[in-house]
Specification:
Catalyzes the conversion of 4-hydroxy-tetrahydrodipicolinate (HTPA) to tetrahydrodipicolinate. One of its GO terms (molecular function) is 4-hydroxy-tetrahydrodipicolinate reductase. The chain is an alpha/beta fold. The protein has two domains: 137 residues, Rossmann fold; 106 residues, Dihydrodipicolinate Reductase, domain 2 (2-Layer Sandwich). Helix content is 32%, strand content 25%. It has seven helices and twelve strands. Helix 3 packs parallel to helix 4 and helix 5 packs parallel to helix 6. The relative contact order is 0.16. The model has no long low-confidence stretch (mean pLDDT 97). The structure holds NADPH dihydro-nicotinamide-adenine-dinucleotide phosphate and the ligand O=C(O)C1=N[C@H](C(=O)O)C[C@H](O)C1. The site of NADPH dihydro-nicotinamide-adenine-dinucleotide phosphate has 26 residues, from helix 1. NADPH dihydro-nicotinamide-adenine-dinucleotide phosphate (NDP) binds next to helix 1.
């Protein structure tokens, strides 16, 4: 297999550290640089304070971005403008930003993968929920994460609701006259699906999709107990993005 040169943005972060280890331990990946705005990372490769400085030094084949919503969007855009493929785990992008980045990837004719969840089990949980929603259209999503997470709802919860929207008629759920006596009690809402976000120390990344029917409840749940759970997905994305000429949003679209 041909060697793939990789740069990682956010190498000191919870996900970034795991990604550095993954790239270092994969024979056909080579870590060529990291981007750390505080230049505190010790990765044994050049550390750049910005993506522009990094690209001026050497263009990698693939940028892995694991930063924050604003930084991740800017990095992905900058990478595409420089003709560099990106694998983006960072969540919190708007639909408009995704559309803009897709147009840019296609204009440049290069690959980009934005995957709100790299865990294979989480992708299956989303697919199973999509399948089940045809039979149980009343759905509430409960996502639970560590208390350092910046975005709510999680990218996974948003993606789950989007996938369900592809196969389920729009639906008002709950009593038509229901009123919140405490704002937020019914959570956020996407296409009638209510999304509830829990943030607590001790949690990693968890999601439970509850589908209610007459006299029954189907619960589909996934738990990531360790961030290693995301790394096989990152590896597949780095390999696959080399072959793409467009932006793919969601790991489910590249798994066989
Ligand atoms: N797709 C998936 O499967 C997963 C996605 N995620 C997503 O990945 C992202 C990162 O999560 P996580 O690792 O937990 O977060 P962390 O806060 O642990 O890591 C983010 C890192 O990015 C750094 N950073 C911020 N700005 C810049 C910049 N301009 N240049 C370089 N680095 C920068 C931060 O540094 P500092 O703190 O010093 O500012 C920090 O080290 C989030 O959006 C999260 O939702 C998380 C898990 C799985
Ligand atoms: O911030 C996290 O931790 C995670 N973020 C992603 C999301 O927003 O869905 C993926 C996973 O849930 C962990």
């Amino acid at each position: 297999m041909e060697m793939i040169k990789v740069s990682i943005a956010g190498p000191r972060g919870r996900m970034g550290k795991e990604a550095v280890t993954l790239v270092e331990e994969t024979n056909h990946f080579e870590l060529v640089s990291v981007i750390d705005h505080k230049q505190e990372a010790s990765a044994g490769v050049p550390v750049f304070a910005s993506l522009e400085e990094c690209f001026a030094h050497e263009l990698p084949d693939v940028l892995i971005d694991l930063t924050t919503p604003e930084v991740g969007y800017t990095h992905t855009k900058t990478a595409l403008e420089h003709g560099v493929r990106s694998v983006v785990g960072t969540t919190g992008f708007t639909a408009e930003q995704l559309e803009e980045l897709k147009t840019l990837a296609e204009d440049k004719g290069i690959g980009c993968i934005i995957a709100p969840n790299f865990a294979i089990g989480a992708v299956l949980m989303m697919k199973f929920s999509q399948m089940a929603s045809k039979y149980f259209p009343d759905i509430e999503i409960l996502e639970l994460h560590h208390d350092q997470k910046l975005d709510a709802p999680s990218g996974t919860a948003v993606k789950t609701a989007e996938m369900i929207r592809e196969v389920r008629e729009s639906k008002e759920q709950g009593h038509p006259d229901e009123k919140e006596t405490l704002q937020g009690a019914r959570g956020a809402e996407m296409d009638g699906i209510h999304i509830h976000s829990v943030r607590l120390p001790g949690l990693v990344a968890h999601q439970q999709v509850m589908l209610g029917g007459e006299g029954e409840l189907l619960t589909i749940r996934h738990d990531s107990f360790h961030r290693k759970s995301f790394m096989s997905g990152v590896k597949v994305c780095v390999e696959t993005v080399m072959e793409l000429k467009t932006l793919v949003y969601g790991l489910e679209n590249i798994l066989e």
